[in-house]
Amino acid sequence: MNPIVTDQDAVTASADWIEPTAAELDAIEQEMPAILADVDLLDAHIATLDRTPTELDARRIRRARRRALAARLALVNRTVGTSLPGGAA
């Protein structure tokens, strides 16, 4: 009996959708400040998971939250004039 096995490398090796397009890379680059601000906020929250947050921890979380919101606001303000693909609103 011969087993039926697919050769995944042969099927997907030349697929165009494996790598991100230039437009996708540009979109990631535009969002990078917001992504990094969100990572800082998560770091601040993670640091307090195993203990009671101190006043210093609370300030760090508040500052990280403000930076994340400011980064999101800047991202929205930069992209407000950009139309979405497919005519979506």
Description:
The structure is a single chain. This protein is mostly helical and 89 residues long. Helices cover 62% and strands 0% of the residues. The protein is flat.
Task: Using the CA coordinates, give the radius of gyration.
Answer: 21 Å
Describe the main β-sheet briefly. none
Q: In percent, how helical is the residue content?
A: 55-70%
What is the distance, rounded to the nearest whole angstrom, between the alpha carbons of the first and last residues?
Answer: 56 Å
The strand count comes to 0
What's the tally of helices? Answer: 3
User: How do the helices and strands follow one another from N- to C-terminus?
Assistant: HHH
Point out poorly predicted stretches. none
Helix/sheet category: mainly alpha
Tell me the strand percentage band.
Answer: under 5%
Tertiary shape: flat
Q: Mean of the pLDDT scores?
A: 85
Describe the protein's topology:
Layout (H helix, E strand, L loop, with lengths): L7 H5 L9 H25 L8 H25 L10
Can you tag this structure with a few keywords?
flat, single chain, about 90 residues, mainly alpha, 3 helices, about 60% helix
Summarize it:
This protein has 89 residues and is mainly alpha-helical. Helices cover 62% and strands 0% of the residues.
